[in-house]
Amino acid sequence: MVIRLSERWPEVSSDRLLSECVPPPRFADVRFATYRPDPDEPSQAEALEVLSERATKLARPRPAPTLWSRLRGGRGGSSSGARESAVDKPGIYLDGGFGVGKTHLLASLWHEASGPKMYCTFVELTNLVGALGLRAAVEALSSYRLICIDEFELDDPGDTMLISRLLGQLVAAGVELAATSNTLPDKLGEGRFQAIDFLREIQALAAHFDVRRIDGPDYRHRGLPVAPEPWPDERVEQTAADRPGASCDHFVDLHRHLAELHPSKYGALLDGVETVAITDIRPLTDENVALRMVVLADRMYDRNLPLLAGGVALDQLFSPEMLKGGYRKKYLRALSRLIALTRESVDHATS
């Protein structure tokens, strides 16, 4: 029987939310030893060396707080009062374009670190805090050795203040941080929000990180991926009916249902699903709907779920205005991922 995502109402406990904060399956086996720096980009080898050095420290259990560290606000380390070195900073921040290996290095650091530890995207972290509440999130995470945050973005003022408060309290409790992004931390939020209050929050975040730039081919020169031709809706429905574990939903039914669910439940929405089919996909003009589809695309990509798509071609999903706006990176990432999942379905059907 075909699964209808629009008829599912998953319940997700806080324990499950925390237990699922691990690298996605495609990064489950990466390690520092499998990272291959580009010999023409020395910053990649430098980042590998810096992360490996930090991993050596994080592989040891979290040290018990000393009197000095308590006086400093929870940070352990030397009591000499010397200026904090890069490795002593509570966080490391990898900035660079797409496809230069930032996520590979971040996941490798997570694999090397002792527990308890957490790996999530920035969107997943904001969703987690939204589901648990800030106080409960701080209580749950304050004992962690390491928190890794992939695709760190601050393009929403509410998220800026929320995550700034969360990370500030976690750093004070002795938690180490690692993050990746395509924007340097003191530039986060530029292009969308220039209010002094938010810039102050962003600058406070930047102080927690040792910033490392990883250079490589500029993703902006690669252009948008070309979407495969969409299938007729009838073919989408029939193929879904023939595949075990396939879901099939009308696009409007699906995005209306997503509006009724907290984004932290989108992963559970896909439990037991092996293929996702969507009919009558239409261009989006509502930013809220578009951002929900971005989160669903991320959860599908994490699970490597092939996509059967009917309606307009996927490269028409987000309006030209959206692709020029402040959430441009999110939309481009979602398009790249959805198109890749659609190609997997096409390859599966022709094999």
- Please report which band the strand proportion falls in: under 5%, 5-15%, 15-25%, 25-35%, 35-45% or over 45%: 5-15%
What is the CA-CA span between the terminal residues? 24 Å
**Biggest beta sheet summary:** 5 strands, parallel
Would you count the extended β strands for me?
A: 8
Report the C-alpha radius of gyration, rounded.
Answer: 21 Å
Structural class: alpha/beta
Individual helix count: 13
Sheet with the most strands: spatial strand order: 2-3-4-1-5
Mean pLDDT across every amino acid position: 85
> What best-fitting shape do the alpha-carbon axes yield?
globular
Helix content bin: 40-55%
The residue ranges in which pLDDT falls below 50 over 5 or more consecutive positions are 77-84
**Element string (H = helix, E = strand):** HHHEHEHHEHEHEHEHHEHEH
Task: Report on the architecture of this protein.
With 351 residues, this protein is of the alpha/beta class. Strand 3, helix 7 and strand 4 form a beta-alpha-beta unit. Helix 6 runs parallel beside helix 7 (157-172), helix 7 (157-172) packs parallel to helix 8 and helix 12 (287-302) packs across helix 13. The chain is built from 13 helices and 8 strands. The longest helix has 23 residues, at 328-350. The strands form 2 sheets. The protein has a 5-stranded parallel sheet with strand order 2-3-4-1-5, with helices on both faces. The model is unreliable at 77-84 (pLDDT under 50). The two termini are 24 Å apart.
Question: How do the helices and strands line up, and which of them pair or pack?
Answer:
Blueprint: H1 14-19, H2 42-58, H3 67-71, E1 91-96, H4 102-112, E2 117-121, H5 122-132, H6 134-141, E3 146-150, H7 157-172, E4 176-181, H8 196-206, E5 209-214, H9 233-242, E6 246-250, H10 251-258, H11 266-269, E7 275-281, H12 287-302, E8 307-311, H13 328-350
Parallel strand pairs: 1-4, 1-5, 2-3, 3-4, 6-7, 7-8
